[in-house]
Design a protein that fits this description.
With 353 residues, the chain is of the alpha/beta class. It has two domains: 1-102 and 261-353, Isopropylmalate Dehydrogenase; 119-254, Isopropylmalate Dehydrogenase, CATH 3.40.718. Helices cover 41% and strands 19% of the residues. It has twelve helices and twelve strands. It has a ten-stranded mixed β-sheet, sandwiched between helices. A two-stranded antiparallel ribbon has the order 6-7. β1 (3-9), α1 and β2 form a beta-alpha-beta unit. The radius of gyration is 20 Å and the shape is globular. Bound molecules: 3-isopropylmalic acid (IPM) and magnesium ion.
Length: 353
């Protein structure tokens, strides 16, 4: 039986994960499929309970599971801990590394009902359909970091091996082949040696994919182009930190970061989580938008288990509730009725039947 390790984590993670599970269970039972879901502690919640952001049990369960469903981690309560013990550096990053989840997929596609929810003009965003492929286990996040004295200084090393670049860029080309056959590699090759290296390797990989049109773009320009003319993009492939920044930016094209799902892959195995954080300011108030998590669960069915039909059913149900006018606070205009986290999950369940 397929095994899912469920890690609600911190803040709104505790509220959005139950909604995604609710939806998953309904879809699976409709298809007479049985999965096991087992919950484990991670992040601040695990620090409070077990004194450690990534307890061994949690790591082991994630290693043994077919897929991991994660809510969010972090919060002000744990921000004063030494950096390496905090939820981000003590749990999320090591988990990504241990599971070798080098490919982070973040799709940004306009849902027509949310056209007016974007802060950008409708004519700019209406045809947006892009995917950002973010390298997730290398670069600045994982290079050596430290401090020196005299002079007081701090450093984070940005290093990529050829192998690390090659595998994510390959996936970029393959993803583009299944779409509009356009790949934009984003770097800062006018300044960074690691980017010039990235670009050389990308050019080399491109020889194997003559059917894909490859372009290179500097990251500052990419940020500008994403709000100027986002339709030009099909697949973007980029290093870890550029991808972190650009995906938050790009999420607003589709209305809210509360809609941005993500899959972090190592082959078929994956960890699925919304791209937003734990939102401590609204945690525990039934205000969070569960749709990014619900859509991440759909990605899990599609990418890890090949359950395309079930994934599509979830996506269609999400579109349906938005068409019906359900809006969590992040999506609602001042005149619109606001739906709570639980009620949004219930609406998706109803739309499924
Ligand atoms: C993301 C998040 C994480 C990241 C944080 C929580 C460490 O912003 O998944 O985009 O920077 O990767
Ligand atoms: Mg981020």
């Amino acid at each position: 039986m397929p095994r899912i390790a469920v890690l609600p984590g911190d803040g709104i993670g505790q509220e959005i994960i139950p909604e995604a599970l609710k939806v998953l269970k309904v879809v699976l039972s409709q298809s007479q499929k049985e999965f096991t879901f087992q919950e484990y502690a991670i992040g601040g919640t695990a620090i409070d309970k077990f004194g450690k952001a990534l307890p061994e049990d949690t790591l082991k369960a994630c290693q043994e599971a077919d897929a991991v469903l994660l809510g969010a981690i972090g919060g002000p309560k744990w921000d004063t801990l030494p950096a390496m013990e905090r939820p981000e550096l003590g749990a999320l990053l090591p988990l990504r590394k241990e599971l070798n989840l080098f490919a982070n997929i973040r799709p940004i596609k306009i849902i027509p009902a949310l056209l007016s929810a974007s802060t950008l003009k409708e004519e700019i965003v209406k045809n947006v359909d892009l995917v950002v492929l973010r390298e997730l286990t290398g670069g600045l996040y994982f290079g050596e970091k430290g401090r020196t004295t005299e002079p007081a200084a701090a450093y984070d090393v940005l290093v990529y091996t050829e192998e690390e670049v090659r595998r994510i860029v390959e996936l970029g080309f393959q993803t583009a082949q299944g779409r509009k056959k356009k790949l934009c590699s984003v770097d800062k090759a006018n300044v960074l040696e690691s980017s010039r290296f990235w670009r050389e390797i990308t050019e080399d990989v491109a020889k194997k994919y003559p059917d894909v049109e490859l372009t290179h773009m500097y990251v500052d320009n990419a940020a500008m182009q994403l709000v100027r003319y986002p339709e030009q993009f099909d697949v973007i492939v980029t290093e870890n930190m550029f991808g972190d920044i650009l995906t938050d930016l790009a999420s607003m094209l589709a209305g809210s970061i509360g809609m941005l799902s993500s899959a972090s892959m190592a082959g078929k195995k994956g960890m699925y989580e919304p791209a937003h954080g734990s939102a401590p300011d609204i945690a525990g108030q039934n205000k969070a938008n569960p749709l990014a998590t619900i859509l991440s669960a759909a990605m899990m069915l599609r990418y890890t288990f090949g359950l395309n039909e079930e994934a599509t059913r979830i996506e269609k149900a999400v579109i349906k509730v938005l068409d019906q006018g359900y809006r969590t606070a992040d999506l609602a205009k001042s005149t619109e009725k606001v739906t709570g986290t639980k009620e949004m999950g219930d609406a998706v369940v109803t739309a499924l039947s």
